[in-house]
Amino acid sequence: MAPPVQNTPAEQQDGEQYESGLHVILPGDLLPPTQSQDSEDVVMAPVIKLGPGLQPMSDESIVAVKAGILQSTASANRWWVQSNQKRYVPSSGESVIGIVRGKTAEHYKLDIGAAHPALLGVMAFEGATKRNRPNHEASILGDLLYCRVALANKDMDPELECFNPTTGKADGYGGLEGGHVFKVSLGLARRLLDPKTLVLRLLGQHIPFETAVGINGRVWINSASASHTILVCNAIKNSEYLSPKECESMVKSLIQKM
Amino acid sequence: MASTSISVSAAESPAFSFSASTFQKLHPVEFFRKFISQGVRPDGRLLEGFRPTTVHKNVVSTANGSAMVRIGGTTVICGVKAEVAEPKMDSPNQGYLVPNVELSPMCSSSFRPGPPSEQAQAVSEAINRVLKESKVLDLTDLCIEEGKAVWALWADVSCVSYDGNIYDAALLSVMTALSDVRIRKPTYNEGIIKVSGAEILDDENSFTLNLARTPLSATFSLFDSSMALLADANAAEEAICQGEISVTLDEKGQICALSKVGAASSSQTLLRQCIATARTRTDELRSIIRSQ
Amino acid sequence: MARLDTTRTSAHQLRPFSSSQNLLNRADGSAQFDFGGSSVLCSVVGPAEVKLRDEKLNKATLEVIVRPLVGLPGVKDKACERAIRETLEPIVISALHPRTLVQIVVQTMKDNGSILSTALNAAIMALLDAGIPLNSIIGSVTCIIDSKTNEILLDPTTEEIARAKSTHVFVFDNKSSIPSSTSASMDVDISNDDDGSPRPLFSESTGLFTEEEYLECVNISFKACQAVHGFIRTAVSKKIEKEHQQTQA
C-alpha cells in the first residue's frame, strides 16, 4: 500500500499541460477557466459542450462530479471526464446487451444492468408491422438481445430498439444465439468496442470467435468450442489492468496451456 | 395570513394565483423561503425564537422520578425506574443509567409501529453519550454491594405528541426526571436486598441522585443553501431543512456536546452564533426548571 | 508530551493511511480505508432498483448500513448510520438519478479508535469507485483533548480515547480546501496561513470542553483533513492511471 502521503501536483494551472499528459480530476475540482484572464478577445468559444462527469454550477463555474481523466477536443471546446464504473446508466444511442425478463402485449422487459428495467417494443424490430410480426416474437425469458437504447431519460424507464433508425435495417441488432455472456467494467467494455483493442487482436490471431460488446458492461462470446469460449472470456477479464506487454504474455501463456 | 393570496408568476400570467394554503401545499419550500426572506416563520416566530416551554416534575407516581416537557407542540414524558441488577464483570461497583427514547405511532403519523426507528435510536444514543461522556452521574453512587448488586436506572422517554426538536425535549425531560429521582435506601445481607417500606420517603430512608451537572441543549435547523438558522424547528420545518446544529451546555457554560450534520459546510461565525444563542436558551430553560 | 500511542512522536501526527479500491467483485464500488490499526471496508451498490416504499420521485434514496466488528448492529451503529447518511446526502448529487437506490454498506474490519472517521473516508472512496456523481470529496479525522495534559491529539487510538476529556469528529469537503501549492505533510503544521476560517461539513463532539477548545480542534482537524484529501487524490489518481495505461499504447 502507500502510506506516505503527498499531494500530487494535480492542479496544473496552465492549459497546455493537460492536453498532453493525464489530467486526473476529482469531484469538486473546478475546470480551469480557459485563459479568460489572459486576453479579452479569445474569450473561449461561445459554447462549451459538457460531456459525462462535468456539471455547470449556479455561478457559471464548471465542476467535476466524477473521478477520472479530464478530456477535451482542442477544436470544438468539448470537455468530459473519462471515468470507469461498473453500474450502467443508460444513454440514448448506445448499444447494449439485454436479457429478456418479461413480456407484455406490447413490450418486452429487458434487464440491461441499469437501475430500471428497459422496455423493448414488440414492433421495434427490422421490418415489423402489425401484420408481419418478426420472429423475435418467440423470444422467451432469459434470451439475449443486442439492442440500441432509443430513449434514455433519468425520470423514465429506458426504451430500446432492435434496428438502426437511420437505415431501418437490423444492422447486427437482434437475438444472440448460443455462446456465453459475462460482465466487465464499463471502461473495459468501451475499450473492447475499439476493433484495434490489443487483447481482441491478440486472441484473434489464434482463435476464431464472434463477439458482441454491450456498452452496459456485458460481453458476449461465441466460438467453435466451449474451451475456446472460456479462454477468450478469461483473457478479456484478465486484461483490464495490464500494460500492453503484460497483456501479450498473458494471452501467450493462455494459448500455450490450451 | 391565510386569507391573502400570493401570485406565483405574476409577470407571465397575472390571473394565475393561489390561496396561501394551496401555495404552501404545492411548493412547501418556496412558501417557506418567502417567509424566511422576511425574517419570520409561518407560525409567527422570529428565526431565532424558541417555542414556549413548560416543565412539570413528578408526573408519574409509580416511577422513581419523572417529568413532562412541552416545547410548543412536542410533548414528552420521561419516567426513571430504578431496578436492582447485577453489575458487569469489568465494572463491579458501577450501576447503570440507560436512556431510551420511544417514538411510537401515537405521537405522529410519520412513525411506524415495530422496532425503534433510526431517529429514535440516534436520539437515545446522543443522550446516552452526553450522560456518559460529560460525567453527569457518578455510576459508583448506584452501587449497593460491590460485585453483587447495583441500581439500574431506566430513563424511558415516551413521546406523546411529536412536533419537531425531539432531542431538546427528550434531554430536558431526562435531566428533570433524574433530578426528581428518589430511591429507597437498600440494605444488602447475604444475597438479599431489603428496602424500607415506609409510606413517606425522607432523607433517612431514601436518597436522591447527586448530579454533577445538568446538560441542556438548543437545536437549530439549517434551511437552504443560505444556511438560515431556525431555532427549535417544528416538524414541518424539520422536513424541509437539510441540516441541524445542536449545542448542549452545562450550567457553567461548558459545552457537553456539539453536533452539526447535513447541509453545506458551516462557517465558524455560524457555529459561534449557535453557541451564544444556546447559552441564552439553556439559561432560560434552567430558570423554567427552577421555577417549577 | 509523549502520547499513549508510542508509535507517534507528535500530538498532531496521524497514523499512516492506506487504502485500496475495487476490492469486491460483485459490488458497483468498494474501498478499504485504514488509519493505522483501524480499518473499514465499504461497498456501494447503485444507482440500483429501489423498493417502492423508499422511492423518491426527484432524487436517489441513500441507504447506509453499518456492520460492527463483532455481534449484531446496535444503537451505536444506528446512530453511526445516521451520521454517515446525513453527511453524504449533501455530497451525492442525488437529483441525477431519481427513483434509484444508492446503498452503502460499512463493515468495520479492525477497530483501534477513530472508527467513524475511518468509515467516512472509506465511504467516500467507495462512492468514487462506484462513479456516483458527487459535488465534492470529503475527508474526516477525529481528535481528542487529553484529560491529563489538556493537549489536542489527532487520530486517537482506543487507549487514548479512554483517557479523553472530549472527543471530536470532523468532516471537511474539498470545496473549502482545494489543494494549495504547499504540500500537506503527515505532521500537520497549524501555524499556516489563515485565509477564511475552516468550515466543517460535519462535526460531532462529546465530553466537556469550551468554545475556544472546540474552535481550536476545528482548525487543527482542518489541516489534518487536507492531508486526507491529498491522500485520497493520490490513491484515486494511481488507480485511474493504471486503468488508463493500455489505451495509451
From TrEMBL, chain A:
Pfam families cross-referenced by the UniProt entry: KH_6, Rrp40_N, RRP40_S1
Domain K Homology residues, every copy: 179-226
Annotated GO MF terms: RNA binding
Predominant cellular place of this UniProt entry's protein: cytoplasm
Ribosomal protein listed as a keyword: no
Source organism, top-level taxon: Eukaryota
Cellular location(s): Cytoplasm; Nucleus, Nucleolus
rRNA processing keyword on record: yes
GO BP: CUT catabolic process; exonucleolytic trimming to generate mature 3'-end of 5.8S rRNA from tricistronic rRNA transcript (SSU-rRNA, 5.8S rRNA, LSU-rRNA); nuclear polyadenylation-dependent rRNA catabolic process; poly(A)-dependent snoRNA 3'-end processing; regulation of gene expression; TRAMP-dependent tRNA surveillance pathway; U4 snRNA 3'-end processing
Keyword entries, A-Z: Cytoplasm, Exosome, Nucleus, RNA-binding, rRNA processing
Name used for this protein in its record: Ribosomal RNA-processing protein 40
UniProtKB/TrEMBL annotation, chain B:
Span of domain Exoribonuclease phosphorolytic: 50-183, 215-280
Cell location: Cytoplasm; Nucleus, Nucleolus
SUPFAM superfamilies cross-referenced by the UniProt entry: Ribonuclease PH domain 2-like (SSF55666), Ribosomal protein S5 domain 2-like (SSF54211)
Example GO molecular function: mRNA 3'-UTR AU-rich region binding
Keyword field: Cytoplasm, Exosome, Nucleus, RNA-binding, rRNA processing
InterPro entries referenced in this protein's UniProt entry, alphabetically: ExoRNase_PH_dom1 (IPR001247), ExoRNase_PH_dom2 (IPR015847), ExoRNase_PH_dom2_sf (IPR036345), Exosome_comp_Rrp42_subfam (IPR050590), PNPase/RNase_PH_dom_sf (IPR027408), Ribosomal_Su5_D2-typ_SF (IPR020568), Rrp43 (IPR033196)
Pfam families: RNase_PH, RNase_PH_C
Main location: cytoplasm
GO biological process, one term: U1 snRNA 3'-end processing
Cellular component GO terms, alphabetical: cytoplasmic exosome (RNase complex); nuclear exosome (RNase complex); nucleolus
PANTHER family: EXOSOME COMPLEX COMPONENT RRP43, EXOSOME COMPLEX EXONUCLEASE RIBOSOMAL RNA PROCESSING PROTEIN
Similarity-based family: Belongs to the RNase PH family.
Protein name listed in UniProt: Ribosomal RNA-processing protein 43
Naturally occurring in which organism (per UniProt): Lunasporangiospora selenospora
Species lineage: Eukaryota, Fungi, Fungi incertae sedis, Mucoromycota, Mortierellomycotina
TrEMBL record, chain C:
Keywords, in A-Z order: Exosome, Nucleus, rRNA processing
Keyword Glycoprotein part of the UniProt annotation: no
Family membership: Belongs to the RNase PH family.
CDD domains, alphabetized: RNase_PH_RRP46
Pfam families found in the cross-reference section: RNase_PH
Source superkingdom: Eukaryota
Leader sequence segment: none
Main location: nucleus
Entry's transmembrane regions: none
Gene name in the database record: EXOSC5
Compartments reported by the entry: Nucleus
Gene3D superfamilies from the UniProt entry: GHMP Kinase, N-terminal domain
UniProt xrefs under SUPFAM superfamilies: Ribonuclease PH domain 2-like, Ribosomal protein S5 domain 2-like
Domain named Exoribonuclease phosphorolytic: residues: 13-133
Any one Gene Ontology cellular component term annotated for this protein: nuclear exosome (RNase complex)
Record GO biological process: nuclear mRNA surveillance; poly(A)-dependent snoRNA 3'-end processing; rRNA catabolic process; rRNA processing; U4 snRNA 3'-end processing
Keyword Nucleus assigned: yes
Protein name per the record: Exosome component 5
GO molecular function list: RNA binding
InterPro entries: ExoRNase_PH_dom1, ExoRNase_PH_dom2_sf, PNPase/RNase_PH_dom_sf, Ribosomal_Su5_D2-typ_SF, RNase_PH
Region (Disordered): 178-202
Organism lineage string: Eukaryota, Fungi, Fungi incertae sedis, Mucoromycota, Mortierellomycotina
Source organism of the structure: Lunasporangiospora selenospora
